[in-house]
């Protein structure tokens, strides 16, 4: 039965190949790669001559009226969420007992790597693990999209972020030249993110670490991924030994007294009527992080290190999920 289902599923795939060497923008792109990075023109032309257009990825960057037919004839059944606040819905899929246990197992499996990385970069192991856990379930879901085809599609099929993806495609091809891998062999997210930590190619260049000393920075290798996440946080301003966030009290059930968000810093003395629920000896500027729950708003102070996590993903909810998952991993490891 399982084999029959698999065969039926595979027959629904429609593959659309395209020769991008006929595209004037692509020709100019190839010229630039040859001049800028001394890439071999014939290899680039061979790559771009047979690209599987990734309509699923493209649709994520198009308004509904412009979205293309997906490669799948059978649409997935939409998830029907219960009536809850947005944080309730978000966190239930990010911070789960299973993901906490998987995080502990991941740290134990690579204990020596985490110990060395924590000592070198000053980032607590539970926060590195939490990011990898939320990004790819500790490497269990690094993405199904061919990165070269995806970035080519997003670079040259009209969408709102063409220039961004052309930059990432340029970085990806240059990375493949430096690291000597076949661009066609790498799979990642619908936006071209790679490996356990889901780094965009430009971030692989800027923050990637060859921690296993094999001469390559490979984001699918746990050793390199763990160190690269730590390096990313350190270079974006992580302060060793400082707190990340704490929950606070306020009057009422819905908070509207001050603007909230990870990018709005306040001195605590200017925030009247708000106090930490537990002792918190942090006196620098804080961010007010509001979590929308079904019956009330949960309010937190976010410290500098909380803001640093948002450099990885520009979302207060994301950073809070990382913080709460990391906290639970650390607590359960001490039991």
Characterise the protein shown here.
- With 335 residues, the protein is α+β, with helices and mostly antiparallel strands.
- The protein contains 14 helices and nine strands.
- It has helices spanning 2-10, 24-37, 41-48, 55-59, 86-91, 97-109, 111-121, 125-136, 147-156, 162-179, 201-207, 222-235, 304-312, 316-333, and strands at 17-18, 51-52, 145-146, 187-188, 245-249, 265-266, 275-276, 286-292, 297-302.
- Strand 8 and strand 9 (297-302) form a beta hairpin.
- Helix 9 (147-156) packs antiparallel against helix 10.
- The longest helix is centred in the middle third of the chain and has 18 residues, at 162-179.
- Mean pLDDT is 91; it is low at 1-13 and 72-83.
Cα-based radius of gyration, to the nearest Å: 22 Å
The major β-sheet equals: 5 strands, antiparallel
Helix percent reads 40-55%
Instruction: Count all strands and give the number.
Output: 9
- Low-confidence parts, pLDDT < 50 over ≥5 residues? 1-13, 72-83
Helix/strand/pairing class, anyone? alpha+beta
Give the spatial strand order of the biggest sheet: 6-8-9-5-7
Number of helices: 14
How would you describe the shape?
globular
Q: What portion of residues belong to β-strands?
A: 5-15%
State the separation between the terminal residues, measured CA to CA.
44 Å
Order of helices and strands: HEHHEHHHHHEHHEHHEEEEEHH
Mean pLDDT comes to 91
